[in-house]
Hints:
Layout: H1 9-18, H2 26-37, H3 41-57, E1 59-60, E2 67-68, E3 82-89, H4 92-99, E4 106-110, H5 129-136, E5 142-145, H6 151-164, E6 170-173, H7 189-197, E7 200-201
Parallel strand pairs: 3-4, 3-5, 5-6
Antiparallel strand pairs: 1-2, 6-7
Helix pairs in contact: 1-2
Amino acid sequence: MYIQNFTSKLLEKAVEEFSRLPGIGKKTALRLVLHLLNQEKEDVINFGETIIKLRNEIKHCQSCNTISDNDICNICNNLSRNSSIVCVVESAKDVMSIENTHQFNGVYHVLGGIISPMDGIGPNDLKIDNLYEKINNGDVKELILALSTTMEGDTTNFYLYKKFKNYAVKITTLARGVAIGDELEYADEITLGRSITNRTLFETSI
């Protein structure tokens, strides 16, 4: 067990807060805090103000639920995108991963999670209402189910397929270039890009 005797309560508190971040242990947190203390005061203030501004002013797109500076994100607002093709993902991280492939010109829908009974997350906890509204209005021609190939991701994919299969919408899924059990954010751009380009009908993957 890592034990550190701090010479300052302020330092100890800062290390405690940094160590709450995912993947950051106490040793790494201490290095980060000491690094900040070695920076110019103005730079550290700017760092802190940026985080506070992010937390206070960040929004979620009213159309697709991804993280945005505005009520409608730049992707949904882009008239050159094909808004009739909607790629369903778990989080904003997945939007960024797919955008980095430069292989997709549709729009997105962020669920904000996936069905996971172990974590107490059910279908009612997902952000589906605005997607249902678009499909019900006939605005969506193709729905790409692009969730991670984990048990939870597959369960959520199947739930969405059952929910929307009787609507006039083509339902596809990523080609299995993404290995079983992989999270989208860890797939390389070439593999993920090919998985999107070579997507298949969901019903053939069941």
